[in-house]
Amino acid sequence: MSVKNPILGLCQQSTFLISAAKVDQCPPDVGREVAFAGRSNAGKSSALNTLTHASLARTSKTPGRTQLLNFFSLDEDHRLVDLPGYGYAKVPIPLKLHWQKHLEAYLGSRNSLAGLILMMDIRKPLTDFDQLMLDWAVASQMPMHILLTKSDKLAYGAAKTTLLKVRQEIHKGWGDAISIQLFSAPKRQGIEEAHLVLAQWLGLLDDDADVEDENDDVAE
Q1: Which DSSP string corresponds to the chain?
Q2: pLDDT tens column, 119-152
Q3: Which of 42, 45, 46, 134 sits at a 20 to 30 Å CA gap from 185?
Q4: Which of the following CATH numbers is that of domain 7-201: 3.40.50.300, 3.90.190.20, 3.90.70.10, 3.40.1080.10?
């Protein structure tokens, strides 16, 4: 008999915890957390809000608005982290360097970081910035799961074709440990699959658990 994914209740009670400009301002490095990263305007905030059934992350028509490490509490031992959007051309270079310095410090030193969700706009996948994140994940042996966001912007067949193409490129260049799926916040596509990844990384599922999943169509 299948059971409900335990991440659902935690996401529904998620609350803002703290914003940090530097690593030493982050909450205590205990428990487990999953970070969300993505090039500016890739739909990162919308995806985070959809997965938590809340308006945790601010969305804006101006890319690059997220300038801090924003932590959200699921319970005392589990957190989600909204990382600064990267790659937006209009952000001043000194600010870009500040983000890069402290983002690298966070990624390289955070023991509680259990995995990284990387958002890619399905219409512009595998940018130089995305490839840098893939390089880092492989070098650091950090679990990574990719959401091809805004999949509703393409016809279903074209979205599936892009998914398969990007998956092949990732497996060729970075190995088969990185998983990938389609995701659309407006259409609420891919939520169950992403929730399953979060639950596994946060240690909320037994290895042999049979979890209800209504979205078996685009799995990795």
Answers
A1: --B--THHHHHHT-EEEEEESSGGGSPPS-SEEEEEEEBTTSSHHHHHHHHHTS--S---SSTT---SEEEEEEETTEEEEEPPPB--TTS-HHHHHHHHHHHHHHHHH-TTEEEEEEEEETTS-S-HHHHHHHHHHHHHT--EEEEEE-GGGS-HHHHHHHHHHHHHHHHHHH-SS-EEEE-BTTTTBSHHHHHHHHHHHTT-S-TT--B--S--SS--
A2: 999 999 998 889 988 998 999 999 999 999 999 9
A3: 134
A4: 3.40.50.300
